[in-house]
Amino acid sequence: MSIDGYGTDVLLRNEPVQARSAARLSSLLDAAAEVVEEVGYERLTTAMVAERAGASIGTVYRYFPDRIAVLEGLSARAFRRFLDRISDLYRESRLETVQERVSAAIDVYVDLYRTERGFRVVRFGDVVDIRLLDGRRSNNAVLAERLAGIAGERGSQHDPEDLVFRLQVVISLTEALVHRAFATAPEGDQAFLEEAKAVATEYVHRHLDPPD
């Protein structure tokens, strides 16, 4: 099942088609995010989600067959929100170079760590399953392909296959440094966050110049 055309496969039993159903799903995911932050993804249960959301366990099972599906739903939502914000940012801003776009993407990623409940625990699903978003490719590969697609929409002249590979490297480097930044500091250790951006932009400068 695909969410919003991003190829993120999640095991939701009934994808909502009405506003009330969508609101209920959102409230369940919000509750799950709160619980995940408090107890970790390993201890999350559907019963905890139901209790926190003030819903029956049957309501939870209407959307999520098990706790893994809840985690998948959280990751898919974060993935969608990240790409939506990146797409809006790239469309509305004059980010002409790959370095500028990578830097902007890191800013959005860091902001998700700070503002998206449960994100620093579950992120894009890698802590649960390295192939959570697609089932065939790694989560980083899915993200890199989508970002490369956005670059292509803006007229990127880079070889698509090489661009996807380079973006996977950048994502892996950034993830490690940003995760370290938030390991001990609620708002993120600024030195590590600055280094994450410096490492990423230097890498793309070295491997993806000339700019678009």
Automatic annotation (TrEMBL):
Stored PANTHER family: HTH-TYPE TRANSCRIPTIONAL REGULATOR PKSA, HTH-TYPE TRANSCRIPTIONAL REGULATOR RUTR
Coiled coil regions, renumbered to chain: none
Name of this chain's protein: HTH tetR-type domain-containing protein
Keywords, comma-separated and alphabetical: DNA-binding
Residue ranges annotated for the HTH tetR-type domain, each copy included: 22-82
DNA-binding region: 45-64
InterPro entries attached to this UniProt entry: Homeodomain-like_sf, HTH-type_TetR-like_transc_reg, HTH_TetR, TetR_C_22
Highest taxon of source: Bacteria
